[in-house]
Design a protein that fits this description.
mainly beta, Lipocalin, elongated
C-alpha cells in the first residue's frame, strides 16, 4: 500500500508539474473562436439570439449615463471573407424586449399613452426595429463601416455602424460554424419620434452591439 501511495503521489506531482509548465509556456487550451478571417466560411449566417445583445446608453439629467439592453435579436448575415465589402446584413430587434435595472423604467418605455394620448417612448406592443445594410466598407483588417437604414417607431433613417470582427470558429457545444462581431453607433432618438424629456434625458443614444451569427 505504501508503494502504491508513493506511485500515486509521484504521478500527481508529475501531472501538476506538466500542467504548470504548459501553462507557463502558453499551453492552455485554445479558445474555439479566434480573430482569424481564414476561419470564416462564405455563406449565409443567422443571428444567434441567445448570444446577441443591443445595449443602449443615455444621459440622465446631466448626472450620469444609464444603460439598457434589447435581446431576442433575429436576422441574417451574408458574408464572403474574400470580398467583405459585399457583405449584407438584415437584423430585427424587438423593442418590446427592452430591459433595464429599473422595473419602473422598463414599464415606462413600453407603456401606452394616458387617456389615448401618444406614449412617452415606444408605447404598448411596439413594432420591432429593423436595420438593413446598404453598403459595407472595410476600414482595416478586422474593421468596417456598415451603412444601412434603421426603421424604428415608424421612421426610417440612415445609420452607420462601426463594426469589428471578434472571432470565428466552431461552437464546441453545437459544432456549428460561428462568427462574432461588435458594433457601435449613436443616434438621436428624436429623429425617430422619441422626444420625451429631451434634453433632460439626452437626445443622443449610444448603441453598443455584440452579435454572434451561426452558419446555416
Amino acid at each position: 500500500m505504501r508503494i502504491s501511495k508513493l506511485v500515486l503521489a509521484a504521478a500527481a506531482g508529475a501531472a501538476a508539474l506538466t500542467f504548470g509548465t504548459l501553462h507557463a509556456q502558453g499551453g492552455a487550451p485554445q479558445l474555439p473562436g479566434q480573430v482569424d478571417a481564414s476561419r470564416v466560411e462564405a455563406g449565409t449566417y443567422q443571428v444567434d439570439p441567445n448570444h446577441t445583445l443591443v445595449g443602449w446608453r443615455a444621459n440622465h439629467f446631466g448626472f450620469n449615463d444609464y444603460f439598457g439592453i434589447f435581446g431576442n435579436v433575429t436576422g441574417t448575415l451574408e458574408i464572403d471573407p474574400a470580398n467583405p465589402n459585399a457583405a449584407k446584413l438584415d437584423v430585427t430587434v424587438p423593442i418590446a424586449s427592452v430591459v433595464t435595472a429599473s422595473a419602473g423604467l422598463t414599464d415606462h418605455l413600453t407603456r401606452a399613452g394616458k387617456d389615448g394620448a401618444a406614449p412617452d417612448f415606444f408605447g404598448a406592443d411596439p413594432a420591432p426595429a429593423r436595420f438593413v445594410s446598404t453598403k459595407v466598407e472595410s476600414t482595416g483588417g478586422t474593421t468596417a463601416n456598415i451603412t444601412g437604414n434603421l426603421t424604428m417607431n415608424g421612421v426610417t433613417k440612415p445609420v452607420v455602424i462601426a463594426a469589428e470582427f471578434t472571432g470565428a470558429g466552431a461552437n464546441p457545444m453545437s459544432q456549428v460554424k460561428t462568427v462574432g462581431f461588435e458594433g457601435r453607433t449613436s443616434i438621436k432618438r428624436s429623429d425617430w419620434g422619441v422626444k420625451f424629456a429631451v434634453p433632460m434625458v439626452s437626445d443622443e443614444v449610444e448603441l453598443d452591439i455584440s452579435a454572434a451569427f451561426e452558419k446555416r
